Amino acid sequence: MKKSSTKPSVDLILHDIGELLTLSGSSTMPAKFPTYETLGVLKTEDLCVAASSSEIVFVGRRSDLNESYSTTRALDIDCRSQLVMPGFVDSHTHTVFAGSREGELSAKLSGMSYLEILKSGGGILKTVRETNLASEEELLFQTKGRLKRMTGNGTTTVEVKSGYALSVSGEIRLLEVLAKLRAEYGYDIVPTILSAHAIPQEYIGKAVAYVSEVVIPSINVAAERKLAKFCDVFLEEGVFGYRDSESILSHAARVGLSTKIHADEFSDQHGAELGAKLGVVSADHLGRSSLEGIAALSRSGAVAVLLPGTLFSSFVGTYAKARQFIDLGLPVAIATDLSPNSWIESMQFVISLACYGMRITVEEAIVAATINGAHALSRAKDVGSIETGKRANILICNVENYKQVPYRIGSSVVEKVIRDGRLSVENA
Ligand SMILES: [Zn+2]
Fold first, then answer.
1. Element (H or E) spanning 418, and its range?
2. Count: domains in the chain
3. How far is the CA of 342 from the centre of ligand 1 (A)?
4. Domain region containing 414
5. DSSP state, 211?
């Protein structure tokens, strides 16, 4: 038998796991037809997961762990026969902004649509005013608060888009705030530049000038300074048209950014077809896409990021046809779309909505919130599942099985959050 000093050591052990969702085996390709098997459920007796620094190094029986690793200096967490699963990957948010828009709930209740609120100077444009007036310190403080609560609800990787400044320096300032939150507070943020989020008031009627004077230059700075990984565009009636969206995303790809698209959220603008044509990593929303568009997307290799919380909070009354998308072989991820329009900090709530609203299965919803979300961010090699070699981003839940996750509505099942191999949140 080897001497213990020759064994590599682990510094975190989660033991006495009741049910472990590994989601293993889907890191190379997103899961198109998720089933119970895709969840990689383990219920072995004496089950544990161990991490060394920020990486998962062992999944299996505790007795086998002791054979191969020194465990003397490890933090031991007793999971008390409960559910353990990967941290949620929230692959579409607008988390960096200042202020709030709770007044719009009353406007929506009186019958105003999202686009009518935007046209009357509210919506995104109100948030742009509040964001541009906020100091960098205030912006950082407000954004950090949201990230902290999202982490408490189990989100361990989050995509965040700029888009509430709509000037070159303002959009870059938002990305700088995200870089600071990553570097100083360790949040796993995937930054996206979305200067094509709305036309600011000073450019109304001059969309072409806004694209050439603000959108393109801000993309250039973001790419040059490596402040963004993705570029996104809001293709929608009254916002950015098909041609503008195509030229913006093509330019972004030329300067080295990966691409995403807000496609067919409220009306069919052939966004799904454009996403397929441009080879975007993800096409998001797709609430009004045609079946031809969806078929084109599924052939292109893109992930569909569906955001049922936005449609829920916009009183649209219908959801993206997730069931059809999955049947057509289009891999589906789900995300919060956290913004002042739909202030949702909980991926568990979105999982519930995906089941109760879009009527996808519990297994499909959990895959969509973890490994497929990681694929939507080109991050599936290091997050989204519990496998050796991956980042130790893990949730310990206060329920016995995964079917409880969507079933519990409006309260969190997340008891502890492990982020990068360290106990980051203890809710109980
Ligand atoms: Zn969005």
1. strand 414-419
2. 2
3. 10
4. 4-86+385-426
5. I
d(CA 252, ligand 1 centre) in Å: 18
Q: What is the pTM of this model?
A: 0.96
Looking at the structure, tell me whether residues 191 and 306 fall in a common domain: yes
53 with 106, same domain? no
Q: The CATH number of the domain where 417 resides is what?
A: 2.30.40.10
339 vs 387: CA distance, rounded Å: 32
What is the whole-number distance in angstroms between the Cα of residue 341 and the centre of ligand 1? 10
Count of alpha carbons within 13 angstroms of residue 198, beta-carbon side: 22
Contact 268, 290 (CB under 8 A): yes
Mean pLDDT of all residues belonging to the chain: 95
CA 401 and chain centroid, separation: 23
- Distances 90 to 75, 215, 269, 306, 346 between C-alpha atoms, Å: 28, 25, 25, 11, 9
How far CA 414 is from CA of 34, 196, 315, 427, in Å, comes to 23, 35, 28, 7
Q: Which two tokens stand for residue 360?
A: 């996808």
Residue 287 vs residue 230, higher pLDDT: 230
Alpha-carbon dihedral of residues 362, 368, 374, 375, nearest 10 degrees? Answer: 130
How many whole angstroms from 397 Cα to the centroid of ligand 1? 28
At 316-354, the pLDDT tens digits run 888 999 999 999 999 999 999 999 999 999 999 999 999
Which CATH number covers residue 331?
Answer: 3.20.20.140
Which of residues 177 and 44 earns the better pLDDT score?
A: 177
Q: Determine what percent of the chain is predicted with pLDDT higher than 90.
A: 89
Dist. CA 200 → ligand 1 center (Å): 17
Same domain, 126 and 258: yes
Give residue 120 CA to ligand 1 midpoint distance, Å: 20
